[in-house]
Amino acid sequence: MLTKIINWLLLAGLSLALVFVLGSIDCPAYHFLGPMISGVIISLAGRAPKVPNWSFPLAQSFIGALVARGFSHGFWAILAGSWPYLVIGTIWAILLGALMSLILLKLKLIHENTAFWSLSPGGAAIMVIMANERGGNMAVVAFGQYFRVLLISVAAVLVSSFFMQAEITKAPIVLFPPVPWFDLGMTLVAVAVGLFIAHLFPFIPGGQLLIPMVLAGFSKNYLDHSIFLPPWLLYPCYALMGWRIGLSFTRESLKIVLKLIPALFLGIMGMFAGCAFFGWVMALGTGLDPLTAYLASCPGGLDAVTIIAASSGADLPFITAMQAMRLIMVISLGPWFYGLLSKYFNARAKTAK
């Protein structure tokens, strides 16, 4: 019991210290990035505490409600006019993951049963399960997936720092603002109902975030109230999502994939560059600001990108719409597409032997 308390104190203390340091230099999403880095350090030190599983869906649901702040009646018209970019961008990300995997295979840096699942641009849990069913290494795939989210999150923060407007970083934060109880109550109802529906239909990709997001947006527009999420409620959610990523890096998985880290790094950076290129094309074609286009197209985790976008002043609803479409298509098409590729190249490797 004492060890558990010490581990929690170490994680919380280091997270607070990094949040303070990153916040002092106006780093975007520092409430998320600090806990994420702390989670990696504490986990690799063998001091990772057990975070309750129920806390992550709860945190995701509040982040979904945060996205719904930007929903308006005119938003859907804007989204409808940009649907080709949403679809093409998602397919582009899936093909990039396959291309980077093929390059690593040709260089003989990674095994056929593992490559495609490790570099899928989303659906981490699904890809780990599918890889295991096809003889892949679950530890390698899990590490590759969360390594992708970690690297892309850090890259997104750096890009956001470059594009972010100065006045956004200087805005004062009131930790305990006055509470409009009706708005807070309606927000909590939307979150609670969304979580309940997501629990009833667990097969919906990203349901813990997307369903509360839709319900909160509907409630905001048609029941005429504001979505109220005070910092004292949001910041713990940011920390939980950061810990979820950081604590995934265990010493055991690190020992297994140590030799593969350079290959995974190159593959992920290739995906990063390719998606950044598409973001540039999308910015030219739609008139979106560069930061919004980049965050919408980057192959990071839906919740991680959402948190970063929320703190950077980008078009949060558009970013979430594209990220959600990517997640849905990756989970729907990815297992079939990557399964075919894995089976084909695995058969070729056996024939060559």
Which regions contain 5 or more consecutive residues with pLDDT less than 50?
A: 166-170
Nearest-angstrom radius of gyration? 20 Å
Largest pleated sheet: none
Arithmetic mean of pLDDT = 84
The helix fraction, in percent, is over 70%
Order of helices and strands: HHHHHHHHHHHHHHHHH
Report the sheet-strand fraction.
under 5%
The strand count comes to: 0
How would you sum up the global shape? globular
Number of helical segments with 4 or more residues? 17
| Structural class estimated from helices and strands | mainly alpha
N-to-C terminal Cα separation, in Å? Answer: 53 Å
Task: Walk me through what this model shows.
The protein has a domain at 69-177 and 230-352. Helix content is 77%, strand content 0%. It has 17 helices and no strands. It has helices at 2-24, 30-44, 55-68, 73-81, 83-106, 112-118, 124-133, 138-163, 166-169, 181-200, 207-222, 231-246, 251-257, 261-286, 290-297, 302-312, 316-352. Helix 8 packs across helix 14 (261-286). The model is unreliable at 166-170 (pLDDT under 50).
Write a short abstract of this structure.
This protein has 353 residues and is mainly α. The chain has helices spanning 2-24, 30-44, 55-68, 73-81, 83-106, 112-118, 124-133, 138-163, 166-169, 181-200, 207-222, 231-246, 251-257, 261-286, 290-297, 302-312, 316-352. The protein has a domain at 69-177 and 230-352.
